[in-house]
Amino acid sequence: MLKRNIAVGLLSASLLLGFSSPEALAQRKREEPPPLKERLFFGAGLGSLQFGTITDIDVSPVVGLWLAPRLNVAAGPKYRFYKDPIDRTNIYGLRAYSQFYFIRDLNNVIPLNVHLGFFLHLEDELLSLQSSFWQPPPNETNRIYRNTGLAGVGISQPMGPRSSFDFMVLWPMNDSFYNLLYRLYAEPEIRISFTF
């Protein structure tokens, strides 16, 4: 009985030492996600930038987090200034999105020395609109709120180890234009963003 207990103890100790070997520890460290500060990213998006008879400026900074090597989430404020020859308005609100990279680096799929990434993009925007600009009178409140989901695809061009230039084509997922004088979104909506 004593010999069997010693054998079981030695076997257990060797297994524990085996799992604690430098190779095993290095393997475990490789599987652990990077620290939070390395998974955070910042960015800014441009929905439109037009000056002249019609001025349309759309800016939306974001703070994001890589949840996995191919999946991120981000959120931030949104501001848009729109002016035409008749009137002008300010639009502001919040947006949140998630991106899934189905191809992280095209060069790994087709060795052409082209390092583009391709992703799916899902977004939700909650916007505050000036009633007098967006709806015909009578207006019960000064501002109205519209929540719109957007979905589409994008291409990412790396510009450094942690930065990229992204181009997206998005479509509104619900009828957020109901009872509005102007359309909030083009179909498709073209967006450009920078992340770092």
Write the layout of secondary structure elements.
Elements: H1 2-19, H2 22-31, H3 36-39, E1 40-50, E2 55-68, E3 71-83, E4 88-103, H4 106-109, E5 117-130, H5 131-134, E6 143-158, E7 164-172, E8 189-195
Tell me about this structure.
The chain folds into 2 domains: 1-32; 34-195, Porin (Beta Barrel), CATH 2.40.160.20. Helices cover 20% and strands 51% of the residues. It contains 5 helices and 8 strands, in the order αααββββαβαβββ. An 8-stranded antiparallel β-barrel has the order 1-2-3-4-5-6-7-8.
Alpha plus pi helix count: 5
Helix content: 10-25%
Major β-sheet, in short?
A: 8 strands, antiparallel, barrel
Oligomer: single chain
Q: Low-confidence parts lasting 5 or more residues at pLDDT below 50? A: 1-22
Assess the beta-strand content as a share of residues. over 45%
Strand line-up of the largest beta sheet? 1-2-3-4-5-6-7-8
What class would the helix/strand composition place it in?
alpha+beta
Number of strands: 8
- The backbone outline, from C-alpha atoms, is elongated
CATH class of the largest domain: Mainly Beta
For the record, give the distance between the C-alpha atoms at the N and C termini, rounded to a whole number: 64 Å
Number of domains: 2
Overall mean pLDDT: 84
